[in-house]
């Protein structure tokens, strides 16, 4: 969904946004819709409203229920049901040639006619393909005459071929003076047939008498003051309006509005793009003309030519279809997607999508700047350079903000005459751009605060890194609430404290790099004469996440070991200077300090040394049997327990037997 405003007219592009691939699962589509803002704003008015490659023509049935679009590749037609907002059917055509144009002969989709580039004419009924025939010359356009059931074909010939659908045969053709005929149309009121020729003329024929009644020379009338054309303008579009109105589009980008009672045009409107006019439509409610070339769709008043609004799609335009009685129009583009535009100023939304009227208030976001068509904005300095300051206050200049609007044709004429050194200005602009590009490649110096410089540098690096999150973090350096932290020395971070070292295990490595960068930064500030300094590549400073995790664990262990070592070093002088005190537990008999040292030494000895001492003292006896088993006999020491209520001696004797199979058997006697 895209909302733009041109001349204060809101235009809603309902087809704007990303399209989700069909092969995605429903779960992935929901995830994309939650994360992508463009997909969230996308409105799929009609499901699968697109072509595989290119859409060439688009039509709306007279009952307003069906929208038919033709395109490639392979040549096909798609029918969309507006009541269901989805695709009704799709047919591939019999002929392999590209489709030139098609038309709907019935109220719905039951009767269709297709004109191919290889001279084939294909007829379709409700069930599908019905009949195929061929015309003598390559066709470019055709029109259907309802009273006589005749199809008029025009193309690369001077003749107009007539095919009667009631009799099923070709009738005598109409002979013209033109070398080729590009377009044709039939007036819906009095059935006058008009054909636009390659020479820029419009021949009008009366089907009742099969004779030419009038000729309009549009090529000569399209050239007016200030109009620049290349080559002879030929007729590229033709459209009747009522019984007396007619609009003619030329291949050089002009639109001529005629009254059939006069041979001179009432109005000549130039698109200023030099591209052929491809489509013409009339909007009777607002007296507007909708003219389109391959680049832009312009809406302007048919009486005075005042611009109402304009639409410029991203892809080139092939055809435009205005939904009758509404403000919605469809475009066939050089792109798979067919655009749908809704302009509330032209009329209400169609009945099948009336909910769009309720959404217009919510969709007025990000409006584009106002575009003044056919005018150039100039400042007072520009007027001085062009020598047009004497026009200030005249109707030729319209004051606006800090400058003026002037006619684009007048601006081009005066600039060509008053500025013969345009190449020098272009050269200066290019040199200025090169200088600006070289300045951006230099090292940008940043001022650091006096307190917590390393923390400030860390915040700067984090702010420069791209983030995927939607919400941006607040910059503490620009926040007044934390300004004191970078000014008052009392807020200096103590990196030697135990809490800082444990909470920031890898701060030593990052801090070392930051200190090097800080010293490098201060050196750059002191040396102001040096112009460019080469910095280290960012790839050398990056580390993988796995290496960071390993270094984090190792650094935590190292920091804990260093903290314990510092604590032991601080406690050692206190131990040597102060006497050592021992507490005797209840039931123990104090003998000497040597017993305590002996016990501590005994606890540090290995099991082998203990067994040897016990065997030498006679308390332990180890014997080997014949089958490989071992027998261990031991006697525990006498332990005296002094209690006021009980006094006795307890002697434990036991035997531990280990068999050859590895089993252990232990017996104990009291």
From TrEMBL:
It is found in: Nucleus, Nucleolus. Keywords: Nucleus, Repeat, WD repeat. Residues 1-366 form the Nucleolar protein 10-like N-terminal domain. SUPFAM superfamilies: WD40 repeat-like. Its main location: nucleus. One of its GO terms (cellular component) is 90S preribosome. Residues 371-419 form the Nucleolar protein 10-like second domain. Residues 479-505 form the NUC153 domain. GO terms for biological process: maturation of SSU-rRNA from tricistronic rRNA transcript (SSU-rRNA, 5.8S rRNA, LSU-rRNA). Residues 512-553 are annotated as: Disordered. Residues 540-549 have a biased composition (Acidic residues). Belongs to the WD repeat NOL10/ENP2 family. This is Nucleolar protein 10. It comes from Cyprinus carpio.
């Amino acid at each position: 969904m895209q909302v733009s405003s041109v001349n204060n007219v809101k235009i809603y592009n309902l087809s704007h946004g990303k399209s989700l691939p069909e092969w995605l699962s429903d779960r992935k589509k929901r995830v994309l819709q939650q994360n992508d803002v463009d997909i969230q704003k996308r409105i799929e008015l009609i499901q699968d409203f697109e072509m595989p490659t290119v859409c060439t023509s688009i039509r709306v049935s007279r009952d307003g229920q069906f929208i038919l679009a033709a395109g490639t590749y392979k040549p096909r037609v798609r029918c969309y049901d507006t009541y269901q907002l989805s695709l009704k059917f799709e047919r591939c055509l019999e002929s392999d040639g590209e489709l030139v144009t098609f038309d709907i002969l019935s109220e719905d989709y039951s009767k269709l006619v297709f004109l191919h580039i290889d001279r084939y004419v294909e007829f379709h009924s409700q069930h599908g393909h019905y009949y195929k025939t061929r015309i003598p010359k390559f066709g470019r356009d055709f029109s259907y005459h309802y009273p006589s059931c005749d199809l008029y074909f025009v193309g690369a010939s001077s003749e107009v071929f007539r095919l009667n659908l009631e009799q099923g045969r070709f009738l005598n053709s109409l002979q013209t003076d033109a070398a080729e005929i590009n377009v044709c149309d039939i007036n819906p009121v009095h059935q006058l047939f008009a054909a636009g020729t390659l020479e820029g003329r419009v021949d009008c024929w009366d089907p009742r008498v099969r004779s030419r009644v009038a000729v309009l020379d549009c090529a000569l009338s399209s050239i007016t003051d200030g109009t620049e054309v290349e080559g002879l303008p030929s007729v590229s579009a033709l459209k009747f309006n009522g019984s007396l109105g007619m609009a003619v589009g030329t291949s050089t980008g002009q639109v001529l509005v005629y009254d059939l009672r006069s041979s001179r045009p009432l109005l000549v409107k130039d698109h200023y793009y030099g591209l052929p006019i491809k489509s013409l439509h009339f909007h009777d409610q607002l007296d507007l003309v909708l003219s389109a070339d391959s680049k832009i769709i312009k809406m302007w008043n048919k009486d005075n030519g005042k611009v109402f609004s304009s639409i410029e799609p991203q892809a080139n335009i092939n055809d435009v279809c205005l939904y009758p009685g509404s403000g919605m129009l469809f475009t066939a583009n050089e792109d798979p997607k067919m655009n749908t535009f809704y302009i509330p100023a032209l009329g209400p939304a169609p009945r099948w999508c009336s909910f769009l009227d309720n959404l217009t208030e919510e969709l007025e976001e990000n409006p584009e700047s106002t575009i003044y068509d056919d005018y150039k904005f100039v400042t007072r300095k520009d007027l001085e350079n062009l020598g047009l300051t004497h026009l200030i206050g005249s109707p030729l200049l319209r004051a606006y903000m800090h400058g003026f609007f002037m006619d684009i044709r007048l601006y081009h004429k005066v600039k060509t005459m008053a500025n013969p050194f345009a190449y020098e200005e272009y050269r200066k602009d290019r040199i200025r751009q090169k200088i600006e590009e070289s300045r951006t490649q230099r090292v940008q110096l940043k001022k650091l605060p006096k307190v917590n410089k390393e923390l400030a540098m860390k915040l700067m690096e984090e702010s420069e890194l791209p983030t995927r999150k939607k919400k941006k973090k607040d910059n503490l350096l620009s926040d007044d609430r934390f300004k004191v932290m970078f000014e008052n020395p009392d807020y200096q971070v103590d990196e030697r404290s135990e809490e800082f070292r444990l909470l920031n295990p890898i701060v030593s490595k990052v801090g070392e790099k930051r200190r090097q960068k800080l010293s490098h930064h201060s050196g750059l500030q002191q040396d102001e004469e040096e112009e460019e300094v080469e910095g280290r590549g960012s790839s050398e400073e990056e580390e993988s996440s796995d290496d960071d995790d390993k270094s984090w664990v190792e650094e935590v262990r190292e920091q804990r070991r260093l903290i314990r070592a510092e604590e032991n070093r601080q406690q050692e002088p206190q131990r040597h200077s102060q006497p050592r005190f021992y507490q005797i537990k209840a039931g123990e008999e104090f003998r000497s300090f040597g017993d305590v040292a002996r016990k501590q030494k005994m606890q540090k000895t290995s099991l082998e040394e203990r067994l040897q001492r016990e065997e030498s003292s006679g308390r332990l006896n180890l014997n080997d049997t014949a089958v490989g088993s071992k027998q261990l006999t031991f006697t525990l020491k006498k332990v005296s327990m002094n209690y006021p209520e009980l006094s006795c001696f307890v002697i434990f004797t036991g035997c531990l037997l280990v068999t050859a199979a590895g089993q252990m058997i232990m017996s104990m006697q009291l």
